[in-house]
Amino acid sequence: MSQTLTHEEIYESVREILCDALGVDEDEVTPEASLTKDLGAESIDFLDINFKVEKKFSTPEKPFKINQGELFPENLTSDPSLVKDGKFTDAGMELLRTKMPHVDYSAFDADRSVDNVSELFTVKSLCDFVGRKLAN
């Protein structure tokens, strides 16, 4: 697969991956769809999505490798400097923004609830992640 893909080509590939990994219909996979809330992804599905994205966007010349926690950060909620009373602190939000620049935090900023963090992972954020990674 060529590393100079258009946004539409990335979106089509991501949609195929999500339909396969989550067993959803193509029309359900919209840019705004949350992987968990709208498409029903569970934690085990994130491993499958990770694997399928790596496989789809790798070429013999340039492997597409996603480091652990790069796409879906892990173990942030156990650090008291990052989470207090079930909500991300300013330091926690800064770390999220640094680790996941591909995510739109505008709606999440008002609430910051740990319980809602999985809703940040949308089809668009996954496409943006792939686009940023391919550009590097």
| Fourth-tier CATH superfamily name of the largest domain | ACP-like
How many DSSP helices? 4
Query: What top-tier CATH class of the largest domain fits best?
Result: Mainly Alpha
Order of helices and strands: HHEEHH
Number of separate structural domains:
2
Low-confidence stretches: none
* Structural Rg: 15 Å
| Strand residue content | under 5%
- Structural class of the helix and strand makeup? mainly alpha
CATH architecture of the largest domain: Orthogonal Bundle
Measured distance between first and last alpha carbons: 16 Å
Please provide the count of β strands. 2
Q: What is the overall shape?
A: globular
CATH topology of the largest domain: Non-ribosomal Peptide Synthetase Peptidyl Carrier Protein, Chain A
Main beta sheet: strand number and arrangement? 2 strands, antiparallel
Strand sequence of the main sheet, in spatial order?
1-2
Kindly describe this structure.
The protein has 136 residues and is an all-alpha fold. The chain folds into 2 domains: 1-66 and 121-136, Non-ribosomal Peptide Synthetase Peptidyl Carrier Protein, Chain A, CATH 1.10.1200; 73-118, no CATH class. Helices cover 40% and strands 3% of the residues. The protein contains 4 helices and 2 strands; from the N terminus they run ααββαα. The protein has a two-stranded antiparallel ribbon with strand order 1-2. Strand 1 and strand 2 (87-88) form a beta hairpin. Helix 1 crosses helix 2 and helix 1 packs across helix 4 (123-135). The radius of gyration is 15 Å and the shape is globular. The relative contact order is 0.18.
